[in-house]
Give the backbone structure.
Amino acid sequence: MRDRLIIGLDVPGVEEARSIVTRIGDAGTFYKIGYQLAYAGGFDFARELIGQGKKVFLDLKLHDIGNTVEEGVRSIARMGVTFLTVHAYPQTMRAAVAGKAGSGLKILAVTVLTSYDDNDLVEAGYTPMPAAELVSRRAGQARDIGIDGIVCAATEAQRVSGIIGPDRFVVTPGIRPTGSEAGDQKRVVTPGDAIRNGATHLVVARPIVKAADPRAAAEAIVREMAEA
Ligand code: C5P
């Protein structure tokens, strides 16, 4: 169960990240590095974590012309990263699948950013379509293209899991342990409910990295996951 908890290192620099990882110790095996840390020394830190036997999820949400995505993914695959995100545009997904060939890297697709609602999609120039419908359509395309998994809200995990099937990953952020603060997350789900909804991995940042005792916080979440 411990391997199914991904701890989001949403901190400004490597020093803070290293201190959190040290405090969590063997209670944490899988770490996510996003924009904030990636562009502040996070790539070298990812190599450091991998060298210590930890797994790394690079949340870079790539999207560019096919050749650029393919070559970028090839470089990331050589680092020994476990999960990488790309936006769920068919060209981008096909390029990512080609770039990871022969490596252990798994590609996760982000269907529609959870900060986008139906109006935001229209504003961005899409033909009016409910965001939920676009999520389903892109999840189906991700499956057909051979993407390894989807990042989605825990509230959507069951539906997405039904589309992509049992052999792919369903990775869900927006998790709040029972009794903790939601922060800016609007639709929060407890660790137990996320697992019951079909999530294979949970991404949790603030409830762990901002806790007085990050190790105890991580252990409590793993316990809630195991009880589900
Ligand atoms: O602090 P918190 O647990 O809310 O952090 C969740 C992490 O998951 C953050 O790194 C955030 O960027 C990421 N994420 C998210 N919602 C998405 C995709 C990624 O919260 N739809």
Notes: The mean pLDDT is 95. The domain at 2-227 is CATH 3.20.20.70 (TIM Barrel). Residues 172 and 202 are 5 Å apart (CA to CA).
